[in-house]
Write a structure and sequence with these properties.
By secondary structure, the chain is an alpha/beta fold. The chain is built from 6 helices and 5 strands, in the order αβααββββααα. The chain is globular and about 35 Å long. 44% of the residues are buried.
Amino acid sequence: MLDKVIVSDILTRSCVVTDLVASNKIEVIEALSSLLYAENIINDKALFIQDVIAREALGPTGFDNQVAIPHGKSVAVNETRMAVANLRTPVDWETEEDVAVKLVILFAVRNADSGIGHIKVLARVSVALGDDEIVERLINAKTNEELYRLIVNNTGV
């Protein structure tokens, strides 16, 4: 169970990518899911993507500051983790003001971890992403390492 989780426990450098090329949110979710699958974080990429898309149908995960935080609780998840990408060009994502997003943080959540720890990590990341200066730095990160460090250093670790 995830009670006391810090972002560096659930984000690895191999699941961070800068300058991701995608033309829509499904392509972004697929690309980030591929990173998670390559690290054996998820065991069934198609099922996980299906679960994330089902969650997307329940309500928007995009925010008006060019950030989206899609997530999926799934039996396809071996361990709760996240993957992060800044995008080469913004993609359409449902937000209150119909703002395209440029930064996506995908959470993969094991069914057993869907309680308070998951909510705390989402909240911690969401608070950091409420800071326009931090978001601007994340969006403009030039390397995977820079993006990784910015996420870890600005989310309470």
